[in-house]
Amino acid sequence: MRARNLERYRHELGWKDAPLLEAAAAATGAQPAVACGDLESLSREAAGCTRCRLAEQRRSVVFGEGDPRAPLMFVGEGPGAEEDRTGRPFVGQAGALLDAMILALGLERRQVYIANVVKCRPPGNRDPQDDEVAACAPYLDRQIALIRPRVIVALGKPAARRLTGSTAPISALRGRWASYLGIPVLPTFHPAYLLRTPLAKREVWQDLKAVRRRLESDAPAR
CA torsion angle for 118, 158, 140, 195 (degrees, to 10)? Predict the structure, then answer.
């Protein structure tokens, strides 16, 4: 993103400054996470997954991408049409906005990890259904266990509900810290929602500042 575009985005936001896998499975009702020892082998296993109906019409399994040792992980709901076509998470307009959010934190996309609750596109870009989320849960749980981020940002309602266990609306969950696998989780609005509701960017900026403070306070000693 060009500097002037990032600066405009900051202005729009009103910025003045710019556990154990088995325990998680028991808590969520999911099966224990798959046992792959690294993200590459986990991605290969996910590529052949037929655990739910979403496999029937997919073009790609959108596994995730980023730094395998990232301090910050973003989790969205599921791939859209462009993600299904390219095999990459968060591309297109929503992806560009997420890139801006990451840059505003002082990071680049390559320095974080980006994944979704489900790895295959739900038809018509609908929200993933509960059984689809449960079928994909072992993959996300294993990603989290392998990456071990210091903070997870849950983008949108499906991701927030999956990682907090709450059925509350995203408007009630955003900005409130939770924990998953012993890792702090902060739900916030999905970038696609921000494209439709630009005024909500200010609330998301408050959430991002909270994420930045948590990362700074938990930074390893040098």
Answer: 80
Side chain identity at residue 90, one-letter code: F
CA distance 148 to 139: 14
Q: How far apart are CA 190 and CA 187, in angstroms?
A: 9
Shortest CA distance to 68 belongs to which of 152, 139, 147? 147
Q: Which domains does the chain have, with CATH numbers?
A: 3-217 (3.40.470.10)
Tell me the pTM. Answer: 0.85
Give dist(CA 16, CA 79) in Å, integer.
Answer: 33
Buried b / exposed e along 106-143 (16+ C-beta atoms within 10 A)? ebebeebbbbbbbbbbbeeeebbeeebbbbbbbbbbbb
The letter for the amino acid at 99 is D
Q: Which of 186, 178, 158, 180 is nearest to 21 (CA)?
A: 180
Q: What is the pLDDT of residues 156-214, one digit of tens each?
A: 999 999 999 999 999 999 999 999 999 999 999 999 999 999 999 999 999 999 999 99
Alpha carbons 43 and 34: distance in angstroms, whole number: 11
- CA–CA separation, 178 vs 36, rounded Å? 27
CA angle 105, 216, 142 (to 5 degrees): 80
